[in-house]
């Protein structure tokens, strides 16, 4: 059964962190008692590779010899997904932007990095209307900007404002989930919207929205991560090896077969195939193992969020669990 969650624009992140911390303690023993013959996978609508695997059932086939059953749970964005993973309601999260594990770490979640998609800086951007008077990042001062709290787009906005000598106090942020952000943008209830693909490309093609800035030029790498609960990583490395291999294989297939992949995803996302193909061209889909060196930008992101008061304390983003795939 698919679960659907929405991140409310009025929800305070600090409250989410506190609630997640309390729930972690309350559900730790329950998570330990979960049977090892299942994997509960959380995903977002933009979780391309796992969406393909969900549709073609290749993951179920690969796990069948181990007697492992799958269940799928859909979330509106990465933050509630990792909250659910952190409190033991999921075993695996696929996939979330680079910012999201930082909030999970701040909440005390015991998670393990399993895989990463290499940088895709053009796959998220700050959009303005085609006829907007906003021409530069400095023009955002005093403007209302829609952004999803805790998403990769949140850091892009922070970094872009910093580049222009601004900070969050210089704008009026509207914290909205992707669907709500788009609605506010097309109805001109906000001056700008920070979005990621496929929502980004869809808005550009349908409304002629103009990119004010994406993450290129070292502004924001925009890597996406796949994570598991530490408990599941300890118990079922054999399952994670299969999941890792299938994700890598699927990423290669999507890039090698752009039209076929776009046709498949168009049906899943309710977006036309041409838009999906263009959106996919912005993503690397290069799945690889996570390394300490590869997490370097995580510290920069965490420090930026701390400076804005979005996380409660200084984090050492290197002090995390990294699961390593085993050679076949």
UniProtKB/TrEMBL annotation:
Cleavable signal peptide: 1-31
Keywords annotated in UniProt: Signal, Transport
Pfam families registered for this protein in UniProt: NMT1
GO cellular component, one term: periplasmic space
InterPro entries for the chain: ABC_SsuA_sub-bd, Solute-binding_3/MltF_N, SsuA/THI5
Principal cellular location given in the protein's record: periplasm
Cellular compartment(s): Periplasm
Family that this chain belongs to: Belongs to the bacterial solute-binding protein SsuA/TauA family.
Entry function: Part of a binding-protein-dependent transport system for aliphatic sulfonates. Putative binding protein.
Family matches, as NCBIfam families: SsuA_fam
Name recorded for this polypeptide: Putative aliphatic sulfonates-binding protein
Organism classification: Bacteria, Pseudomonadati, Pseudomonadota, Alphaproteobacteria, Hyphomicrobiales
